[in-house]
Batch of 2 targets.
Target 1
Amino acid sequence: MDNCIFCKIANGEIPSATLYEDEEFRVILDLGPASKGHSLILPKAHAANLYELDDETAGKAMILAKKMAGRLQKALGCDGLNVVQNNGECAGQTVFHFHMHLIPRYINDDAGLTWKPGTLTEEVKEEILARMKEQQ
Ligand code: AMP
Ligand code: ZN
């Protein structure tokens, strides 16, 4: 993909702080970290988002997330870790090349990855269950 910054970073055309690299992925430090050690898993092949990602890459990305989570925990001594993956502008996606965030968490940190819990009503629950059944 021309003009995709994460294609260029993942494939080494633009330098990055690389924590891991193999044939299919590069893991880099995020330049605007939510916490110390905030990293991004980038597949080298372009997919804009989760919907476009092929199953094999999706599987490997999660296995790599597990590996990197362990390494970050050991290296940095974090107390927890969030895996975040945004799809679409309204969901907070700003770079339209699939990536997974690994965000180490520390007791009393200020990373602020929270939401206001709503209420699952019976009506909405039944609607969703019915609509999702149609998708099977
Ligand atoms: P998202 O909002 O999920 O699309 O995440 C994009 C992330 O990429 C943000 O956390 C940015 O801080 C990060 N980012 C953008 N450009 C770069 C870059 N050149 N190198 C490293 N991280 C970047
Ligand atoms: Zn790309």
Target 2
Amino acid sequence: MDLILRNANVWKYKGLTDIGIENGKFKKIKKEISEKGEEEIDLKGKLVTPPLVEIHVHMDAVLTVGEPRFNMTGTLLEGIEIWSERKKKLTREDVKERVIEAVKWQLANGVTRIRTHVDVCDPSFTALKAILEVKKEFDGLVEIQTVAFPQEGIYSYPDGDELVRKAMEEGADVVGGIPHYEWTREDGVRDVIFAVELGKELNKLIDLHIDETDDEHSRFVEVLAAETIKNKYFGKVTASHTTAMHSYNNAYAFKLLGWIKRARLNMVTNPLDNSILQGRFDTYPKRRGHTRVKEMDSMGINVCIADDSIMDPWYPLGVGDPLQAAFVFVHYGQMSGYNEMMSLFDMITENPAKTFGCGDKYGIKEGNPADLVVYNAPTEIDALRTVAPRLYVVKDGKIVVESKPTERTIYIDGKKESVEFIK
Ligand code: FE2
């Protein structure tokens, strides 16, 4: 065998396991592989999961924080103002340089699939064309999906509908929308109908920014669920952000959850951005701006966690790591129950893989492409607690990321000790 990883704590497997890889595929996964590998690594009980999937990020804006100025209020509105200034200076080279850097960060964190929304309210499609070039450059290493995202509206921006259609012709993979941002409720409904019809016509996936507001009257997810059901487009449609669901009355929310399940919508929550952007018009108490993750997860709805931003006008921090977003969501979504913490790993791996359309070739099992991530932590909880660095990322059987654990030494009464933050 080409590579054998020994003594791995493989996510969802019981006990330490050896992983044998040959010709880019998982050849054998069992307690003890007797044959020798060309290369062998003893993982000494470290956690191994399938690769992470970044299912919602805005790569066109990454690494622009502070350009032309920092967001002083930290609000969505000031972020939009700053972005509209920065956007005027976008060039192909500028976008490519930033996106390539951010993709490398994501890969180093174990992300091998990225769905990026790209603002297409730009008749020249500067950002889209640049990101499509980056997509080609990373082919075979990181798979990038682009969403034709009408940041300024399909009906509130001149020829917004035509721009989304043209962006799809240009090579975007997924149809986007932003109904809550349209000028009127009626235009918001048209926005959803347009996106579902276009997605169906082109046989493409659909992913809308939807109800990303604290306004409890923003109720476009119900339209999206209804249109998905009417068009029988089950499983191909994603609702991103949906923060207004936090503010709905329970009677309405539970009715809506039933429609979401029936439509098999994929749901994406973005704890990094929405924890700082929502509740800004509240005095006290201040609302949490996240969707109803626990309830949806317990109903079997496919829920995903994503980053949304990496150092942009809306969110100044971030390193392109879905595990970091999951860590934040432990606190923000009160997901600290044991099973809840374990379910967060589903929300950054298998669930977004399903949303992405990976099919059954995703996951650690014999015969599948040998893609995996090794964490510098023995368990899921330790990985989450320490937002553990990724020691290795393996893609198609090849090690594509390797990192060295940090060594920390403390001196007590002149005696040297090392500290690892592991019990
Ligand atoms: Fe977003």
